[in-house]
Amino acid sequence: MDFFTSAPITSSLLLANVVASMIGFGATDFINQNSLWIRPIREQGQWHRVLTSGFLHVNGAHLFVNMLTLYYFGPPLETVFGSTGFAILYFGSLLGGSFWEVVDKGRQPDYRAIGASGAISGLMSAVGILFPFATIYLMFALPIWAGLYALAFIVISFVYSQRENTMIAHGAHLGGAVAGIVLTLVLKPDAFGKLMDQIAQQFG
Q1: Mean pLDDT computed over 47-68
Q2: I need a surface site. Which of 1, 91, 157, 190 has the fewest CB within 10 A?
Q3: Alpha carbon distance 88, 74 (integer Å)
Q4: Residue 138 pLDDT level (bands cut at 50, 70, 90)
Q5: pTM (predicted TM-score)
Q6: Three-class SS string for the chain?
Q7: Please, are residues 38 and 106 in contact by the beta-carbon 8 Å criterion?
Q8: Distances (CA, A) of 80 to 50, 95, 146, 187, 199
């Protein structure tokens, strides 16, 4: 109960993602109507898809990974930004990732994507800026600084987003991560200075 009261936006997003994804697992039509599908967005103006696609997932593993990240990093970020600021960060990153894909895949009308990865990428960018030397564990085993992870993630997403026929929406990852950086610096103007101070203290 404390989790829901201390992190209301995070808990609400977790619930919304789980419920929407569970509906989608058993309803192909629901996925088709709400996925990030370029053709109906471009030809029919179905722009709701840039938002609704971020609450759907391919399978349980896809949902679990994204929600686990949200569960761990959502509450501390919600504490830093406040509930309103955190909501802006989350939805801004989600939309940033979606719009990046719409532009990047504009000539591929049959391209479709779902998942909260754009929003999650934005959160990880925020963690990398605010807590650059916090230790996170890749695959639950490999320790890495959050800032280094965020930087590597952006570089890798950019490289892979240039490839054709990828099964992963790397463009959404990249767009979400970039949006997360911008929004963090807008919502917390002193974040860059504090980041430089932390780097100086770590290596000075």
Answers
A1: 93
A2: 1
A3: 13
A4: confident
A5: 0.92
A6: CHHHHHCHHHHHHHHHHHHHHHHHHCCHHHHHHHCEEHHHHHHHCCCCHHHHHHHCCCCHHHHHHHHHHHHHHHHHHHHHHHHHHHHHHHHHHHHHHHHHHHHHCCCCCCCEECCCHHHHHHHHHHHHHHCCCCEEEECCCEEEEHHHHHHHHHHHHHHHHCCCCCCCCHHHHHHHHHHHHHHHHHHCCCHHHHHHHHHHHHHC
A7: yes
A8: 27, 21, 16, 10, 20
Question: Rounded to 5 degrees, what are φ and ψ at 113?
Answer: -155, 150
CA atoms of 25 and 50, how far apart (whole Å): 19
Tell me the per-residue pLDDT of 19-49, one tens digit each, with 9 for 90 and over: 999 999 989 999 999 999 999 999 999 999 9
What is the model's pLDDT at position 125? 94
* CB atoms inside a 10 Å sphere around CB 141: 6
pLDDT at residue 167 tops 60: no
